[in-house]
Specification:
Number of strands: 9
Bound molecules: S-adenosylmethionine
Distance between the termini: 31 Å
CATH class of the largest domain: Alpha Beta
Strand content: 15-25%
């Protein structure tokens, strides 16, 4: 593991999120496999792929498996949170299943770009849900684009991930709880960004950010995470993770009645516990914006 001094620019304790992120990786492996297959289909042989802000490595594993299927390559995992990176390394190495895929890790704060001494020009850079955690998102995109080799592809999974797990009416509290929690979470995120040192506004979409970074053939595609009701134990656990995450982020911004409803839904001893319901589901969408260097 190559380690640079690294920290994130948000207030999130990413290490504490490891168990929930890992549960999400397991649940969404099939979706990740589809996205990885699409992203890698036109890569050259023995490609160099970088997973930036890899977290616990759900996509790192899918990318490693694709490189393995294609006969091998190099996969570099980058994150500011060392414990997540260790997990991602384990997942990616396992997914490569003995194929000639070299997997390495770099602990780094990507706000300053990728360290060029350890990250070579890449054929594909995948950065999911990390650039929006940087104070200057456009500078972050430009720095990633600068690390591409000729014809290399930068793929950003960004934009609001639409995510739902609860019915509109729950039988306790006021209908529409989840929408209010998500709105409160968004408010928290806006305040977090506004308070970041050195924050720079990016008043346009991710396709424009890629184009301004000098990339061509910029386009996007979207995909689904679709786990219908009735939920399996794994989906219920992920729904509880999601509810805990969005309610923690927005807790001070919703009323006491909604806080009480969340408390009851997440208390295994309460008859209203979410884990006892047969109408819980998980549905989310993601969008990849991608472009190519000349
Ligand atoms: C929302 S998670 C996304 C994880 C994974 N890419 C995914 O889509 O599931 C954000 C990740 O970015 C990392 N991160 C946040 N700020 C970072 C920074 N400035 N430099 C490098 N990594 C950062 C966090 O440690 C965390 O693993």
């Amino acid at each position: 593991m190559t380690a640079m001094p690294a920290h994130t620019h948000d207030e999130v304790d990413w290490a504490a999120r490891l168990p929930a992120m890992l549960r999400g990786d397991a649940l969404d492996a099939e979706t990740f496999a589809g996205v990885a297959s699409r992203l890698t289909s036109e890569l050259p042989d023995t490609a160099t792929v970088v997973d930036v802000g890899c977290g616990t490595g759900g996509m790192s594993a899918a990318l490693a498996a694709e490189l393995g299927r294609r006969g091998g390559g190099t996969l570099i995992l980058v994150d500011a949170t060392e414990v997540l990176l260790e997990q991602a390394l384990e997942s990616a190495t396992k997914a490569a299943a003995g194929a000639p895929v070299r997997v390495s890790t770099v602990v780094a704060d990507i706000a300053g770009g990728l360290p060029s001494d350890v990250v070579p020009p890449a054929d594909l850079i995948w950065a999911s849900a990390v650039v929006h955690h940087l104070p200057d998102q456009q500078a972050g995109v430009a720095a990633l684009a600068a690390t591409l080799g000729d014809g290399g592809v930068l793929a950003l999974a960004e934009g609001p991930r639409q995510s739902q797990c609860l019915p509109w009416e729950l039988g306790i509290g006021e209908p529409g709880l989840e929408r209010r929690l998500l709105a409160a979470r968004d408010e928290w995120f806006c305040e977090l960004r506004a308070g970041m040192a050195g924050v720079v506004a990016m008043p346009y979409g991710w396709n424009v950010a890629l184009r301004r970074a000098g990339l061509v053939d910029v386009t996007s595609f979207s995909y689904l995470f679709d786990h219908p009701a009735p939920a399996s134990a794994a989906v219920l656990a992920a729904a509880l993770d999601q509810l805990a995450w969005i309610s923690r982020a927005g807790a001070e911004r919703v009323g006491e009645a909604d806080q009480e409803t969340v408390h009851r839904l997440t208390d295994p001893a309460d008859p209203a516990f979410l884990g006892n319901r047969e109408d819980v589901f998980l549905f989310a969408t993601g969008t990849v914006y991608w472009g190519r260097s000349r």
